[in-house]
Amino acid sequence: MATSQVEGFTLLGLSIAIVFIRILIRLRQVGLRNLTADDYLMLGALVPYIAETALAHDVVARYNGLTNSGLTDAQRAALSPDSEEYAWRVGGSKVQVAGWCVYVSVIWFVKASLCAFYSRLTESVNGYRNRIISGYVLIGASYLALILSLLLSCQPFHHFWQINPNPGNLCQPAISKVYVLLTVILNVLTDVYLILIPIPMLWSARLPTIKKLSLCVVFSGAIFVMTAGILRGVLILKDPINGPKQGSSWAVRESFVAVATSNLPMIWGWLQTRLKPFLGSLLSSQSGKRREGPSAGSIMLANTNDNTGRGGCTTLVSVNRDADGSTHALRTDGQGMDYDGGHASGGGIKKEVAISVSSTLAQSTPSDSGKGVSREYNPNF
């Protein structure tokens, strides 16, 4: 087995392990019945990812990376339909069509999972609902545009694997400029949009700069996905002969990066506990100071407007789940609050719930009122 093929299956195995670590963490936290859309979408992404890896192996192992591209008109005319190379090129072209479909499906399933995760992360933060809805629309519309452009741009459909006469660039799936450029553009556009959802919240949080930077890196994994996608497109367009083979390898690498980085925010708390012996000074709070950062596995969010005319204010919310699956939260701004936004009566923290209040909340004092204390949210919730 070639090195690239070993690499492909290794990356697939690592991706499956990462997703299952994420699911196990979620199961311990919320139980099977309370898994949400982002969990199921991430599991769903593994299906086309497995198919993509198998096809990338197939196009090299069975068809030597050959397609109906990379031939002059004279070479096409001289190639016998009964030859082995002709069969390789036909089979390789068919695999490329399927490969494009599953590649796009993997990347866009991951995008949808991230958008669903951000929907949970920001569901109680003002001003984010429309951004999330727009994200869903953008992801759905771009995915539909890519699939339709692939399946409908070459007619009749069998020209996708036609050798002679030359079917034209649109019907050469390995190097079609339409597929390559449209995929790169829409990939970058959707990733930039998704990055811009959580980063402003994280950057405005009351955290040491090093923690802000680390969290921004955790939530900016799409930058690496964009880089891999752009590199893949450049390789294909620059080298129509060897580019398709390299492109298949880079498609698998891009899928791995997409799966790994998109799951990082979900398993960040789990990683923190294991990295703390090595990076304790970066992952722990400053010694000798009152703890203002998040607890392990929590994410600090930005200021929110309480619509009381006082302008922006911030709240520290400790969200917990009871054994029966119900959720509760407590606030430090003088009000009790259900997770769905309902307020308890009276001033002060008066809501009584059967939960364990985090140490961050316990350390808050009335003197915090009006100073803009931070908001804490657990992304693994």
- How many β-strand stretches? 7
* Gap between N and C termini: 42 Å
Average pLDDT figure: 75
The helical percent reads 55-70%
Number of helices: 11
Approximate shape = elongated
Which parts are unreliable, with pLDDT below 50 for 5 consecutive residues or more? 285-381
User: Which structural class do you get from the secondary structure elements?
Assistant: mainly alpha
Rg from alpha-carbon coordinates: 25 Å
Note the run of SSEs as H and E. HHHHHHHHHHEEEEEEHE
Strand arrangement in the largest pleated sheet: 4-5-6
Question: What does the largest sheet look like?
Answer: 3 strands, antiparallel
Quote the beta fraction.
5-15%
Q: How would you concisely characterize the structure shown here?
A:
The protein is mainly alpha-helical and 381 residues long.
What can you tell me about this protein's structure?
There is one protein chain. With 381 residues, the protein is mainly alpha-helical. It has eleven helices and seven strands. Residues 285-381 have low confidence and may be disordered. The chain crosses the membrane at residues 6-25, 37-56, 97-121, 133-158, 178-203, 215-235. It is a multi-pass membrane protein. Residues 22-271 form the Rhodopsin domain. It is found in: Membrane.
Name a few traits of the molecule.
membrane, two-stranded antiparallel ribbon, disordered C terminus, Rhodopsin_dom_fungi, 11 helices, single chain, Rhodopsin domain-containing protein, elongated, 7 strands, mainly alpha, 381 residues, SAT4-like, three-stranded antiparallel beta sheet
